[in-house]
Write a structure and sequence with these properties.
190 residues; mainly alpha; FtsL/DivIC; transmembrane; transmembrane helix
């Protein structure tokens, strides 16, 4: 078997990682009569760069696989690592958000404590205590006359000898709804 050579005279081109060597089939030779002279080479057997016989048929080389075994193993390892780290990462992020929420609640509680302590200081003052007793419990000091004002327009009108004030007019939607109910009550479809 002879190896096929490129036009430049070099051996067959090999791809990296490929151990296959292309070979042509058996070489045919003509039977030459032994006349003692050197046989002439016919122009038919000679290869030329222009290729007088037409286009030569190229053989298709096997294409390398797009994903090799090593690549597949690396992809599987990376996917496994990504899946292994997702749960701890999710737990970490949940804890971070919970911590931020607790810190915000703690700041609100500190503010509330500060407000309550100021209010407590006010209640320790005797004058503030007396003012609150007057407002809330209607306490009076000795010798003072208490005066309580009530908001009673009907009673005030009766004492003044006037008629009671007219009732406030109904709201528009109440009037509309009562007319719908009245129309429904009078409906002949019943």
């Amino acid at each position: 078997m002879t190896q096929r050579r490129a036009p430049s005279g070099q051996g067959p081109a090999r791809r990296p990682g490929s151990s296959r060597v292309r070979t042509t089939g058996a070489v045919r030779t003509r039977a030459v009569r032994n006349t003692g002279s050197v046989p002439k080479k016919s122009s038919r057997n000679r290869r030329t760069v222009t290729g007088s016989r037409g286009a030569t048929k190229r053989t298709a080389a096997p294409r390398p696989r797009a994903i090799t075994g090593r690549t597949m193993v690396l992809i599987v390892v990376f996917v496994a690592l990504a899946l292994a780290y997702t749960y701890p990462l999710r737990v970490y992020l949940a804890q971070e958000s919970q911590l931020a929420q607790l810190e915000a609640e703690q700041a609100e509680e500190r503010q509330l404590i500060a407000q309550k302590s100021q209010e407590l200081q006010k209640w320790k003052d005797p004058e503030y205590l007396r003012a609150q007793a007057r407002e809330r419990l209607f306490y009076v000091r000795e010798g003072e006359v208490p005066l309580v004002v009530r908001n009673d327009p009907a009673g005030a009108a009766a004492e003044a000898g006037q008629k009671q004030p007219a009732a406030a007019p109904d709201r528009w939607y109440d009037t509309l709804w009562s007319s719908v109910r009245a129309a429904d009550a009078e409906s002949p479809n019943q």
